[in-house]
Predict the 3D structure of the following.
Amino acid sequence: MTAYHTDDIIAVDDLVVVYPDGTRAVDGISFRVRAGEFFGFLGPNGAGKSTTIKTLTTLLRMTSGYASVAGAMVDRDPDEVRRSIGVVSQDTVVDVDLTGRENLLLFGRLQHVSSEVLEERVDQLLRVVELEDVAGKPAGRYSGGMRKRLDLASALVHEPSLLFLDEPTTGLDPQSRAALWEYLETINREKGVTIFLTTQYMEEADRLCKRIAIIDHGRLIGEGTPGELKSALGGETIELSFESSGNPELVARAAKVLGTIAGLSQLSTATSSLSASAANAERLLPSVITTLAKEDIHPSALSVSTPTLDDVFLRLTGRRIRSDELDRRTTEPFLQ
């Protein structure tokens, strides 16, 4: 078991979750989350993210290992865990037949919030998530973004010390996503709420999370601050683009030529582009251009970029996540 600190609000050691069909969804992971942290948990579909969060929130039983949340052992004292946490899942759980206010009152009573403070707290949350004007309308008439905000308010009505967010912004439009980001930053900074976020949006994790763990095939394959993870890639990226229709043979020739230039590494090719890593890309650009020109190879565009979390994700998992696959829209009738 790794070192335990009194301010670890989540402590996980050698956690294993095996489904009845034999699938080893989580395969011996260990990590810590400090109280007050904004912690990101990243991974592709099927990596084990949701299984981990369901286990920590007592919705799934672990097969083996150790996990404690807010000082309570997940497998021995699930009721104590539930009293300390709020959970926002991928799908909203609001009652569409109740109004926004009625939903919050219901969740408050389920969490045993005293009637003396519940009404005032509901009013405050409705203001914070900007649903005051529609608080008396059925939640079934809310837009997707409004339902997400109501769902978040429901998870906060009992003032938990720890908030679990399982891909909370998937399917939201950019404006609603940005508004939710701002609110999450506020409650983390001003209220001290610890936030455990799973997401497939790299820019979301980069902006919000102070520390990140990356999981794939049930195992942790990377952990650190966003800056540490990006720095580990080793410098900048030079990307060359060729004609938009794609010319694999030309790209292959260019890659062969660039392979002769000292200082370039980790060449990666696509149909109409290629990229390479360099410790000092700007210094190498003249050599790249002249060396390619000698072989009569002339890229249509050339750019230099610093590493992103998307680059980290690609390096560690071997794949990228396309944002257009995540941005699903709903066709329900919404309030304007």
Q: What stands out?
A: DSSP finds twelve helices and 14 strands in the chain. The longest helix spans residues 174-190. The mean pLDDT is 88. The chain has two domains: 8-224, 236-305.
